[in-house]
User: Fold this.
Amino acid sequence: MNTDENIIKMDMGTLRGDASAKDGVLCLGIESSCDETSAAIVDGNRNILSHIIYSQIPEHQKYGGVVPELAARAHILAIDTVVRQTLAAAGKDISDIDVIAATAGPGLIGGVLIGWMAATGMAQATGKPLVAVNHLEGHALVPRLHAAAADGTDLAAGVEFPYLLMLASGGHCQILLVRGVGQYEQIGQTLDDSAGEAFDKVAKMLGLGYPGGPVVDSRAQSGNPARFKFPRPLCDKPGCDFSFSGIKTAARTMLDKTPAPYCDEFINDFCASFQAAVVDCIVNRLGHAMEDSRVRAAAPRTLVVAGGVAKNSAIRAAMQRLARAHGMTFAAPPLNLCTDNGAMIAWAGIENYRAGKIVRTPVAPRPRWPLTEL
Ligand code: KG4
Ligand code: ZN
Assistant:
């Protein structure tokens, strides 16, 4: 089974960082916490030398979401080939690598174990330093590897600390003040679903398949955001927390009144109206976060979005407008570094290695691992 032929991979290509070589440290990073088996080689000058993602999406699509047992099995079958191909694409051997990093949580524990054990095995066999990367920290720090504006244009430099971060993925939704490596202050969080989950569930109700975010985003571009009235939970309340379950329930109630099949115009308008509600909630909560006394004291100059939902064109555009209105710069990772990927783990590996945070005793992977516990 574990042959190159039966693995669907994407070669993510290379990305150039600083021209002047200052820190040639080479890190091999491995990600396996959900439905992507990925590895990348990144250097300390922000160059991505190679980057391979094996996406399991086709295997989970027929179930409408990720099936943990299938994911774990797929990671086992893919990991060896993905790592070998990543080394080969960079023209490197494992002996050329200075640091090995892998996601050690949070995530689906079967998958996390596979990537983490592969990294631990390589580190033990070679004597290389090993970094246990928190997956959320991978998302949080990747804008320092490469950052882009709302339309995806490269900003040439990575983001500087401190920054105000909207971290929105399939499993998490929080606003963080990022002061430095390992220094994450939570300003707000979701009280129920994550933003990505809301996108995925509404797409499923409309029969649009999995994952839902990309298709809702593209359908919304030709839809009328004012046609359906979605609630904006918590937006009339102080604070920075989110709640998306009410938006999801509103979608279910509206769809129950209009049985399928839905015409294209209906789907586009529904997606646009739903997405507009999510965008309004994010803008409202971030507006409050900017007034938070901890954020005001730290005076971050950049507003950043990261995580899979950061791919969303309307969220990027709205956050760019919000940043401008508050005299801040907006930045997001390039689109291919928003969803789960090995390069963000390799970069977090480099940042942690520089901070001296390497694993010296065996570490057990963690299904739950809040960023605030770092
Ligand atoms: O960060 P990620 O790859 O995995 C987790 O760590 O959870 O995020 C995946 C999530 C999914 O819920 C997917 O629907 C969402 O990111 N997503 C989007 C878009 N692209 C991916 N959500 C909204 N708009 C998009 N364009
Ligand atoms: Zn993720």
Notes: Confidence is low (pLDDT under 50) at residues 1-6.
